[in-house]
Amino acid sequence: MRLDKFLGDQNIGTRKQIKEYIKNGRCSVNGVVATKADAHINENSDEISFDGNVLNYSKYHYFMLYKPQGVVSAVTDGRNKTVIDILKAENVKDLSPCGRLDIDTEGLLLLTDDGQLIHKLLSPKKHVDKVYEVHLEHELSDKDIQNLEKGVDIGDKNDDGTPFYTMPAIVLEKGIDESGRPVIHLVIHEGRFHQVKRMMEAVDNNVLFLKRLSMGSLVLDETLTPGEYRPLSEDEIKELKA
Ligand code: URA
């Protein structure tokens, strides 16, 4: 592939910027300063460096966003800021959120242009675990916990018209928050629309605040603050794909 395409895929800059960087001697191929943007390189065997750092080629891009409240998990929206707007500076074509969090939900959101991985993580057949921190209006009774762990009717129907019951969830009691409200960690294996809120309504409760902590092997990096993001590490990408 062309050197400028390689550097573009790694989000080094726009085509124009990359041309300039190469002209300024900031890029080398196998230890030799590159001079031509259209030079042909082998992305698998050549060692490409930019400003002295070796770049590992990845066709796709993967980011962990700490989604803040007030932002929609969509690519475009006529009214509200989207999660894609937050990552605009990355200039990645075809970046999409992997699933949706409600506008008032915060926490972990994976964004990638790797459609195959998105498909795998969202497939209803794969039952990828998601862990949520849920702040509730009332304390859950033992019976509520038993019901949530067995599966509850959230108002959806199966294809044959019978009521859909959620898969067995896990409820971990975490105490109370600063406002004195009960907090739980809830592990679910599906990702239906408003699923957590509807599960809590099914046991006559209400969600006051919702934060996603993890999705499969990917855990929210608590050094991020709402609205911040970072690229996934090689290990995080490998584990998600496994
Ligand atoms: N369940 C919900 O109800 N809302 C979310 O944003 C995510 C899970």
Explain the overall architecture.
By secondary structure, the protein is of the alpha+beta class. The chain has three domains: 3-55, Structural Genomics Hypothetical 15.5 Kd Protein In mrcA-pckA Intergenic Region, Chain A; 59-126 and 222-242, Alpha-Beta Plaits (2-Layer Sandwich), CATH 3.30.70.580; 129-215, 2-Layer Sandwich (Alpha-Beta Plaits), CATH 3.30.70. It contains seven helices and 15 strands. The mean pLDDT is 95. The chain binds uracil (URA). Residues 101-102, 105, 194-197, 210 line the site of uracil (URA).
CATH top level of the largest domain is: Alpha Beta
As a whole number of angstroms, the C-alpha radius of gyration is: 22 Å
Order of helices and strands: HHEEEEEHEEHEHEEEEHEEEH
Mean pLDDT: 95
The main pleated sheet reads as: 9 strands, mixed
User: Considering the protein shown, what is the CATH homologous superfamily of the largest domain?
Assistant: Pseudouridine synthase I, catalytic domain, N-terminal subdomain
Cα separation of the termini: 28 Å
Keywords:
242 residues; alpha+beta; Structural Genomics Hypothetical 15.5 Kd Protein In mrcA-pckA Intergenic Region, Chain A; Alpha-Beta Plaits; 3 domains; 9-stranded mixed β-sheet; 4-stranded antiparallel β-sheet; binds uracil
Give the arrangement of secondary structure elements:
Layout lengths: L2 H7 L5 H9 L3 E3 L2 E2 L14 E3 L2 E3 L6 E6 L15 H4 L9 E2 L7 E8 L2 H8 L7 E7 L5 H9 L2 E5 L5 E3 L4 E7 L5 E7 L6 H8 L4 E9 L2 E2 L9 E3 L2 H8 L1
Parallel strand pairs: 7-13
Antiparallel strand pairs: 1-2, 1-3, 3-4, 5-7, 5-15, 6-7, 8-12, 8-13, 9-10, 11-12, 13-14
Bound molecules: uracil (URA).
Uracil binds next to helix 6.
